[in-house]
Design a protein that fits this description.
With 194 residues, the chain is of the alpha+beta class. The protein has 5 helices and 8 strands; from the N terminus they run βααβββββββααα. The chain is elongated, with a radius of gyration of 20 Å. This is PhiE125 gp8 family phage protein.
Length: 194
């Protein structure tokens, strides 16, 4: 399995600048750019392949490449909403798509998603030498009505605390407490270690 590649970025932040300003009781537009920068920093800290949670906070499309077909093909990010396509390249580099009825999106007890092929699926063996199999998938919480993110409230609250720690001078005096609460809010989204 190779490192996943972002194909389509999310259409929105997991929490708006206005919602963060309301929570922190910040008035006026003076801090809007800084608050948006800090929200993005929190998102980078939590999400994606290199984030501490390995999740996607708002729906986005990723591509995961593999060296070969397996019965079960793990997806590196979560929560996975759907599979957009499963493709492969033959030894000549020609791309083909696996029919959607040949696989299903599954999830194990720990929340890890994977693609499972039907027992009748005959995996091609004449594959290209470098990353021949690709799965495109949508991961992250979808946008709800009116385009508002449906990212869980505890993650949104953790983002607010992240912003507060870096924006508010008074919050820096309580950094340890805010940091502990922020980590408690996101702890259930970490993959369990087995």
């Amino acid at each position: 399995m190779y490192r996943p590649v972002l194909v389509v970025k999310p259409a929105a932040l997991p929490i708006s600048v206005a919602d963060v300003k309301t929570a922190l009781r910040v008035d006026g537009p003076d801090n809007d750019v800084e608050i948006e920068r800090l929200i993005n920093a929190a998102v980078d800290h939590y999400e994606g392949w290199s984030g501490v949670l390995g999740i996607c906070l708002v729906a986005q499309t990723w591509r995961q490449d593999y060296g070969r077909f397996e019965d079960k093909m793990a997806l590196a990010l979560r929560p996975v909403q759907s599979i957009a396509s499963v493709t492969y390249r033959n030894s000549l580099g020609q791309e083909a798509t696996v029919a959607a009825d040949q696989y299903a999106l599954k999830q194990d007890g720990g929340g890890q998603s994977y693609v499972r092929f039907v027992s009748e699926f005959s995996a091609p063996t004449d594959l290209y030498e470098d990353a021949p199999v690709s799965i495109e998938f949508v991961a992250g919480w979808p946008l709800g009505s009116e385009g508002k993110p449906t990212t869980p409230a505890d993650i949104q609250t953790a983002i607010i605390m992240f912003v507060q720690k870096h924006l508010d001078e008074a919050a820096r005096a309580n950094w340890d407490i805010l940091d502990r609460v922020e980590k408690d809010l996101i702890s259930k989204y970490r993959l369990p270690l087995i």
